[in-house]
Amino acid sequence: MSTPAASAPGENEPAAIEPAAIEPNAREFRAIEPSPVTRREGWLAALAFALLALALLAEPIAKLGTHAYSTGDLANLFALLDQQEKHVPANRLVSDPAFQMQPWTRFIAEELHAGRLPLWNPYSGCGEPLVANYQSALFSPFQWPFYVLPFEVGLVASAFLKLFALGLFTWLFLRRIGLAALSAGVGAVAFAFSGHNVLLLGYPHPGALVVLPAGLWCAERVLQASERGARVLRPAVALAFAVGIGALSGHPEPFFFGVAAIALWCAWRANHVRRARSWRAALLALGAIALAGVAGVALAAPQILPFLEYLQHASALTSRVHNQQPFEWRYLPLWMFPMLFGNPASPYLIDVRIPSPNYEGANMSYAGALVLVAALAACAGWRRDPRVRFAAVLAVLWFLYAYDVAGIGRAAAHVPLLGRMPINRSQPLWLFVVALLAALGADRELRRAAPDGRGRALLAVGIGAALWLAALAGAEREFAAIGERVRPATQMSAVLPAHVREITLSLAAGVAALAVLAWASSRAVRGAACAFAALVVFHQTGWIHRDYNPTIEQRFLFPRTALFDELKATVGDENLAALGEAPLAAELNVAYRLALLCNYDAMGVASFDKFLHQSFAAFGSNKDPRSATTNALAASGTRWILARGSWPAVDSALGDQIFKTGLRAQPVSLEAGVEVVQQFDVARDGMRALLVWAGAFPGARDRVIALRLEHAERGLVFSTELAIGERLAKSRDPEELPASFEYPAGVAACAHPVELPEGLPRGRYRLRLSCADGAPQQCPVLWKAAELKVSGSAFAVRGALDPAALYFDWSFALPRLQFVRAFKHLWLYRDREGLGRYFTVGASEVVASQNDALRRLLDPSFDARRTVLLEGVGGASTASGEPAQAVRIVEELPARVSLEAERASDGWLVICRARYPGWRARVDGAPAELLPANGAFSALRLAAGKHRVELEYAPSSWTAGCAIGAAALVALLVAAWRARS
Length: 981
Hints:
By secondary structure, this protein is α+β, with helices and mostly antiparallel strands. The two termini are 23 Å apart.
């Protein structure tokens, strides 16, 4: 990674100052003097970091062509993408890259190759911005390999670039502040291969974090030029590019903390500039750095402005869990032994929630045992070295903040902007200052003039022993607290002792190297000891986590199966509502171009998310729909429904309850003479179907259940018999009851939907179920659940009231849904009256707000197929007897749509894409106004006749961002040319 204005790694600068040897009894540095980097040293350093990165990536590189560096085998957990029965994913925890970042990247690459800008993702949540979500990282240099290389090669190349850039720029910065090449190597290895960067290698975070070492290197060059009275234009331009590249790299939170660290360093260093020259020089240096930062942000404007616009219309700021979650003290032993409680990429794992919140969250601050020892030993020189004081103070402040000492972490939640940043995103600050301290300590010993390091050698040994003993004691105490969770099945006895032994031996070897470094009088010996210590650091950080990001068979990356291909061929590009169980993870659907209502974008279009939660009972971080109404289907342009089994929860009374994860239910036996009665209230006319879950023992499949439905005023309105054996034999649903249900061994069960006659009125009903014969173990079985909330419920068995409710449901829309075919236990239905994503209506109804629109959509008396709800629009409602009509789609691309619509009278074109700023409409070539409609969508007025309608996503934030970014780039290139000339 290089910039036009940045010096090459080996470039000699004309005014470089030769570093002076650091005397042990020197009280203070009057200035921080750079160590000149020869061209040979620069290339050797680059080669060293390249080799270390290649070593970490050796397995995925060796298996290119047959394997992929990804956790994409997690897709095998989904029924329709099951490639291998009972396949155990290589790492269950690292799901975001496989389910989010990698699908986005693949989609972006395909769109770019097709000559289109991937500004909009039409496949998740009825559409959402893509570039604006930030994590898609369209412009990131670490994404460029995907645009020119095969995807599997891009995965490895991107990871390599992140590690290489982090290591090289950290080394350059440490050299710039006066460290020797080898001691700078210790710090660079410690930071580049720390827990945050290796564990999150598949995420954009390490790429965004490159701004920290690169920005510090460039900022320090500005400060040192000011100290010498030299021109600062060239390093300032380099700083602008460093900030711009960091801002474009895909995650704002690591970038924020990286920039915060740069600001703290510059504020501290400005005092040195003041002492060396004057206040004016210090202020000019800070001004140049600030201007460079502004220029860098301007360079990233095509990313930042759409993001800020999205932030204003996103649900992230209101729905996100509060971010200030301090770390737990009991997990401090992980700073020495990171796999103490298991590793999701290994056979040993006590529980995915131990350590809390998970392995990544607890181990992103892992710097390695030897780095901690070296950092603590370096603090012994805090009086003589201001750099040590700065790093030590910053380390202490971070610890107080991260562990909420004296409430500091909670107090930080009230600081503007900082309160929005999760504490675990601040871990790179800790890692960098600890790496800096370790490097400073190694440098002090490497460059000392006199061989008087016996005491410091003993200090290193003592610190190492103390940390090791404390970590073991803390681990033993925590294991005692965990108690019964530690079972032989965790394979702890096979893995944990080996892990402790590996850390212990490597720590002993590293501490010995530090002791030699402090004690030896020969510079060559000290140099060898320093190099060996760097290798130990690499072993304890990167190498120990080399398999955390696994290498999987290529067939598991975006797998295709015949079942899934059939589903895609049937549904095409139309919206699909998956109720209760998704056919694949939200955002992974983007790679398959399957339009799902669920979405996992961390931002989320606020208006659509609210619509989804209220109209589809969406739950979880994926916002998976659990149930639906016919109005919700029409308003979202959805006519395909995928549901678990024979009961799609569409316009059903309890559908959002009966499929809740973890619902507990107990069996109820229907012996001869035993009647089960369930009373319930129906709030609207037109109940059309009932659902009862029933099963039987193997020897009782010939039994039938008598079903009687009575109305409180009309008496008996329907009766039938449920033939259990016939239903079990013919059911296309091979699934038994959910795993959380209690049911006797051998019982097979399935859903028994029953269509009812038309015209049933609202009111109080009683459902009576009985069996003419049958003894225990030879009778049908029903289920009851205490968690079900049934209006007017009264449940009785043998005439005795029971506080639970029968596990059943009723629906108003089942006959409207046409069964298409089963895909394993997921059944595909088509709404016979669905109109698709674009249709016209003749009537409109004006409501005051989105909340009013959502309430109206939940009203069964409202028909979204005939009337559009217009929000906050002046004027009266209109009515028309003309039925809704589908619209012909001429062309539909992700960010551009062309339609043909024809109406006999004036009406409205309803556009079932998530309403968002930036969409423009033209009717017959003339601009047309898009109005907020149906809670989360848009509509435009159409006069009678035939029309050509064009829709395009062209946000002004993108246009302005590109203009600002282009202007900044031109200005920086001109400045770089002037500085060079």
